[in-house]
Amino acid sequence: MVLLLLVLTGVQLWQTRDVTSGPAPELAVSVLGADGKLVTTTLSAWRALHPAEPVAIHFWAEWCPICRTEENSITRLSRDWPVLTVAMQSGGADQVRATLRQRELPWQAVIDPSGDITRAHGFHAVPSFLVVDAKGQIRTPAVGYQTEMGMRLRLWWVKLTS
């Protein structure tokens, strides 16, 4: 059991080796709201809507089968915590809007058709997840399937230790 835990920890550390540490990248992004409207903003401006709270950023793709298994968890998580999703290489706003509607996902989604926003955060695969604390610092990055409880614990931990 300990060996398995060490292997999983090693894999996670390797997968997140390029994730930026310190302040979250400040990029202009197009965010598709749950209402279907497209707004241009920045991560810090979006975070300002949730003062003194950690926020979750979930990187996903329409074509990713593992991402689909996390959809209900992300939806439930977003009812209690601020969650911004990043639709990596899933097409333009119209395609992402259609995917969200078809799957009945009430998410706010950054449109990342080329994967540049995902790579700017240091991720090379989806699904990926990180928490940005109230001071704008990246915390607890993870690649691969995450349980809802695991995501909640990451947010809670960041809130507790910030």
From TrEMBL:
InterPro entries named among the record's database cross-references: AhpC/TSA, Thioredoxin-like_sf, Thioredoxin_domain, Thioredoxin_ResA/DsbE_sf
Coiled coil, from the record: none
One Gene Ontology term of the molecular function aspect: antioxidant activity
TM helices/strands, residue ranges: none
One Pfam entry name: AhpC-TSA
Listed Gene3D superfamilies: Glutaredoxin
Protein name (database record): Protein disulfide oxidoreductase
Species name: Malikia spinosa
